[in-house]
Amino acid sequence: MYKIFICLFVFTSYISSAFCSLWCYECISTQPGCGEKLNWLWHWTRVCPEQDDVCVKILETKDADVVITRTCLSSLKGLRKDIPADHYEGCRPAAKQSILGNYVNNSIKELDIYRNHYDSTTFCFCFLDNWCNGSGSMIASIILIVFSVLSVYFLH
Q1: Which GO CC terms are listed, alphabetically (predicted)?
Q2: Which of 89, 28, 19 is nearest to 54 (CA)?
Q3: Which of 43, 58, 74, 117 is least enclosed by beta carbons within 10 angstroms?
Q4: Which CATH number fits domain 23-96+109-135: 3.40.50, 2.10.60, 1.10.287, 1.10.357?
Q5: Between 136-155 and 2-19, two packed helices, what is the crossing angle to 10 degrees?
Q6: From edge to edge, which strands make up the β-sheet containing 120-126?
């Protein structure tokens, strides 16, 4: 009977580690179905690689045009220098980079070395919402409770 209890405990710990991963959509609004309203049938989710990762939605506006980028925060850390320091739930404007492009002598104005092409850039972070990561951690907790109750019932 103790072997069954140990097997159930190992199984529930495996299930809980599989469901506790953060899942984020990864697409850009130039792709079909990834605009303001996301078509989840067209875009798959991605498991974020880091343990304390966050889902990010970036809104970059230029006049009436809006470019939306969805991905994991760890995918952006090496590419973007304007990520806000606060990564908690909610939306906030991009961080100001005062020295970005100061030491470059470039005559091609289309390269946007100062990152001032967009009128505004907003970062939206989420990691607690069901659509950002699903309700996997809650499912794992329920499974652990059910197996614990069953094991106590069968051991006594």
Answers
A1: side of membrane
A2: 89
A3: 117
A4: 2.10.60
A5: 170
A6: 27-28, 65-72, 55-62, 120-126, 90-93
Which residues on adjacent β-strands are paired with residue 96? Answer: none
Name 9's Cβ contacts closer than 8 Å, sequence gap at least 6: 147, 151
Burial class (CB in 10 A: 0-12, 13-18, 19+), 73: buried
Answer yes or no: are the C-beta atoms of 55 and 48 closer than 8 Å: yes
83-130 residue pLDDT tens: 999 998 999 999 987 666 667 777 877 777 777 788 999 999 998 754
Q: What is the pTM of this model?
A: 0.66
